[in-house]
């Protein structure tokens, strides 16, 4: 049985948890001195030893990413924090920045020091004004306290941080599209190689990390790599924020060691809605293939979820019970991908449009079983054929839902439309029935 | 819609934004937010001002302005209401909320409701994609502030309070400012509302409350085995 391990969320119940005074009273910015007492390379080694893997979905080892920065390159190095949290279902970085922005700022300073950057950017999606206020204020407080600027803590190290607001584009969560946005351009992904570590922002060596990854760094430096690695599983170390949403008694954020199961999380969250059964769920946002009640005991770590054909992603556990039509759910996600496709690569731009057409017909009960195979064929023509993973993500809900719920697609055809009543799925459905 | 001309103060602020970055063009996204704050939308004048400051063509600025959904070529209301209709919120009731608001305000997607006699403020409506608050579904945003756990009835009451000019607060944030004021914050000019609202909403605290009740914490660093010699050696 796993227990919860609040680290990043530990200040969220504090009065004014976003203030420097609150953070400092709990030992905040102490890790900075511990880091400055180490060489930058030793900080990178500590993060490598901790086993921290990227918390933005891909799970790439963070310390290894940092070590790819060519230190003999004479250009300036940059750290860019990806705070463009937009993957459907993902809602962890927003409360983290709202309730504990200083842990992010401290992480930015230590991480920038490690990669020898003197300028860092925090790219926050534009649609969260209050979160931007909190991070702007945290950066301003850190400057005023001497944690940012010139000769930080007398270390001789300088760092400037810019808080940058995006303007509404899911694709900017993709790291090279984010860089385009940060350079004042349309957010369209770049072809790799070269990778950002070699030619990123302004064609300079750049590390791009997710908010939660960077925010995990201060505790690793302060408590040691072994402390972090004592949580989690063999290849998926440490704590992570799990976000439960949808048909759950107590949706919300649960910070736990990687490897906890959905069954354990649902127990903590009071289970599903009374009188209903789990039907399908996403382990890490809408781009990760759907799982079902069969997978309640799968360890939620990179390997465990991968072994059942999905991905851990951002630990965005969207829970849907038996009242939800999987075709409706998948069509809506598909419309999202179509809307958010940046248009650069043909398979994704055209393919997502066709997927919406095909799924709309099926939802209305039009067509035949052969259309399902055609839909899978379309997915096959999109997957792996574009610069970035947006198109790949668009195929995940479709192919996984057909694998698990083929009969439900067919029921739309025999029923001549959707056999489900959407009113039964709403947050207030239960209240009306019992009233 | 009549728009103010960009005054010298705004032009100076646009230059100030560009100067935050090693390369001026990086300022374009926040600069366009400031144009919206000053003029209520992306205007041809605003596009040309950004282009002149950044020494790029107006077509390049236009290309950026049309890519991002938060930039509006036509005006929005004083309060821009966004209803999440991505899958999870839609299923939890977002579709019903959006339908009710369209009917109540007598408008379609991305339109501004008529300002009735007696209304002191205007409201516009848009369906939006996932806004990273799924644990509070169904979610409505007003000027990009969270209005969590809405119902069709609460959403109608809220838009009526906004039209009447009453003070409305975000469920997890500050008193709502106007859309143009919010755009100014996005351009990087804080408005002093940072200390309003809670540290976290109830759903954000769900796991932490259980940990507190049961005395669960992360491991004690003093108890973890010392295998750190390797890294502290150097």
What's this, in brief?
Chain A has 435 residues and is of the alpha/beta class. Chain A is built from 19 helices and nine strands. The longest helix of chain A has 26 residues.
Tell me what the structure shows:
The complex is a heterodimer of chains A (435) and B (234). Chain A is built from 19 helices and nine strands. With 435 residues, chain A is α/β, with parallel strands linked by helices. In chain A, a hairpin with an 8-residue loop joins β7 and β8 (291-292). The model of chain A has no long low-confidence stretch (mean pLDDT 97). Chain A starts with 19 loop residues before the first helix and ends with a helix. Chain A has helices at residues 20-25, 30-36, 40-50, 62-67, 93-99, 101-115, 129-144, 175-182, 196-199, 211-215, 217-223, 225-229, 262-268, 302-307, 326-340, 346-363, 369-382, 390-415, 429-434, and strands at residues 78-83, 119-124, 160-165, 206-210, 239-246, 252-257, 278-282, 291-292, 316-321. A five-stranded mixed sheet of chain A has the order 6-5-9-7-8, covered by helices on one side. A four-stranded parallel sheet of chain A has the order 3-2-1-4, sandwiched between helices. In chain A, α2 (30-36) crosses α11 (217-223) and α17 (369-382) runs antiparallel to α18. Among the domains of chain B are: 8-67, NADH-quinone oxidoreductase subunit E (Arc Repressor Mutant, subunit A, Orthogonal Bundle); 79-179, 3-Layer(aba) Sandwich (Glutaredoxin), CATH 3.40.30.10. Chain B is of the alpha+beta class. The radius of gyration of chain B is 22 Å and the shape is globular. Mean pLDDT of chain B is 95; it is low at 228-234. In chain B, a hairpin with a 2-residue loop joins β4 (140-142) and β5. Chain B is built from nine helices and five strands. The interface between A and B is large, with 109 and 93 residues.
